[in-house]
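explain this:

___
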Amino acid sequence: MAAARVNIPTVFVSGGTMLAGRVDGKKTSLSSMFEAVGAYTAGKIDEAQLCVCEENTCPTCGSCSGMYTANSMNCLTEVLGMGLRGNGTIPAVYSARIELAKHAGMQVMELVKKNIRPRDIMTPAAIKNALTADMALGCSTNSMLHLPAIANECGVEFNLDMANEISEKTPNLCHLAPAGPTYMEDLNEAGGVYAVLKQLSEIGLLDTSVMTCTGKTLGENIANAVNKDPGVIRTVENAYSKTGGIAVLRGNLAVDGCVVKHSAVAPEMLVHEGPAKVFDSEEDAIAAIYGGKIVKGDVVVIRYEGPSGGPGMREMLNPTSAIAGMGLGKDVALITDGRFSGATRGASIGHISPEAARGGLIAYVQDGDMISINIPEYSIQLKVSDEEIANRKATMEIKKKTGIKGALARYAAQVSSADKGAVINQFVD
């Protein structure tokens, strides 16, 4: 976003990904630790087992070892053309990461000589490429905040409906943690982001003519890429699904859309209808989950955590991990106007827009209301009559958080909804 705003030659280089942990001979990641806390609370593991997880889950520095938010965006930076090969996948502790950083410094001088700037690179076609790769890689739902926000800085129109249009024709080729048993180090060894892009280009899903920070086109960059491990990067013919990893749902509960990581949802939860359990903060929801008040079939609703209501959209990793750790991941859905960590899995639906603080229907949901979720049909509905909804709007007040001052107060007043990337376009007195 900053690079697009100042529009001076830029090469983005991240700190790199953490190596996966090892617990009982199995690879683990941050989400494993959060879920272990839920399992301990539910009596499924003892304190000694919890300590083993705590001491071995995150063994090195770096961004979390699965396809979580940081790694998602670092991978998509390669696709956007703003990062060199390996930016998204080379582990932080590898000497190749230092080499990458040195090459980034060298390459930015080449961009200066050629006067290639970020907005020459992050074009509408490049952003569409990034969204396509997002679907194939199974990236974090937070990419559906970051990509619109980046597009906004580039002056590129971004509509959430693009996600479903692209998803319909993009195969999901990777199931990295938390969706599956592979990790960023595995993706790196399998050929990295370029190997995924090569397969997408072969079926005509990418615009390979776009310029990148290498000074070459995307097509030139990926020409020699090879998929070295079809167990990590599946072939198009053997894709996890014919459609992408993220879905945008709409309905009366999310007129402007909401987002779910389709590829990380258990098949049993792709279609679900259940009674709402409503909470006005993340803390209240966590207390109820650990207190045993959430049962199979429920739809947990966490509201007033959106861009304006939060303010700032805190991530909901604690409640989603608690649900999974307590063994309810295949039985309970969670919806929120907040957002999720990339480590979240299950029927976790975020970015409900309009949010509660702006009068969205989620503000008027009550305990026991039936909520219907149909991910394959991109639908989410509050099954309450129009008359009852009108009555609630006439009698229920929108809650306002107190004690919000300064920059946060200005942010809360001016921020856009999540479907626009939670950006601020206007500054007012």
